[in-house]
Design goal:
The protein has about 240 residues and is an all-beta fold. About 0% of the residues lie in helices and about 50% in strands.
């Protein structure tokens, strides 16, 4: 079993020769895959979403996907050595994109796919690999299972078997999980964070306790700010990207 470390308990079931080692799932490309299931919280509809994972491979294959006959398919994988993204809306058409970063080099990579409104963003190792705006926004609703390591279409069967390792798979019904920043060292109130490719602005939420409550203290287009109330004291922050 691939254990979900979040509070939601969406564990994955391993099939074929897929196995866990040191927190990573290994696939041999010959009938291996993981099925997570179809939790209602991950149907998305028209809401924003975020899918991410770590992976290492020397071949093409499917990383994370969900197929649906009436559209609603979301697929993240590797084709011709670069990232491949498919987003099928329950509308008059589908969207399919290819990145440019070579990722089948056997090295460990981290990729993040986000939809914020009509904007689709893909990063590889924190660098923007794709940033585009959809011509319309429809629901990506689907009742079908999420798969890792292979692509499933009941009409054609299982395909795009993955060879290599995948770890830290995260499927969120929000585009970005707030980053917790703890000011402990110099208590200067100075905050810095890496830019998020889908963000135009950032809400800064602050609290005097790590468990909150957090309240918005400012909004900015910069990735470096100074909170006057954080000088010479210990405060806790969420940095929340907005589009």
């Amino acid at each position: 079993m691939a254990t979900d470390n979040s509070i939601f308990g969406n564990d994955g079931t391993l099939f074929g020769d897929a196995y866990m080692q040191d927190g990573r799932i290994f696939f041999d490309g010959d009938g291996d895959y993981v099925i997570i299931g179809a939790p209602a919280s991950l149907r998305f509809y028209t809401s924003d979403f975020r899918i991410e994972c770590d992976f290492a491979t020397t071949a093409d294959g499917s990383l994370v996907n969900r197929w649906n006959a009436d559209d609603g398919t979301i697929s993240l994988g590797i084709t011709n050595g670069t990232m491949h993204v498919q987003v099928d809306n329950t509308g008059p058409g589908d969207f399919e994109f290819h990145g440019s970063t070579v990722v089948n080099d056997g090295q460990l990579h981290h990729t993040v796919l986000s939809r914020v409104g009509q904007r689709i963003c893909l990063t590889v190792d924190s660098n923007t690999d794709l940033d585009t705006v959809l011509t319309y926004l429809e629901s990506t609703d689907a009742y079908t299972d999420w798969w890792v390591g292979a692509f499933y279409n009941p009409q054609y069967g299982i395909s795009e078997f993955y060879t290599g390792s995948i770890s830290d798979v995260k499927i969120w019904s929000v585009p970005y999980v707030p980053q917790l920043v703890i000011q402990v060292e110099d208590q200067s109130g100075r905050l810095m964070w890496p830019p998020h490719p889908c963000a135009d602005t950032y809400d800064i939420e602050a609290a005097d306790d790590p468990d909150g409550p957090f309240t918005i203290v400012s909004a900015t287009t910069d990735t470096t700010v100074i909170d006057p109330l954080g000088v010479n004291t210990r405060r806790f922050y969420h940095i929340v990207p907005r589009n």
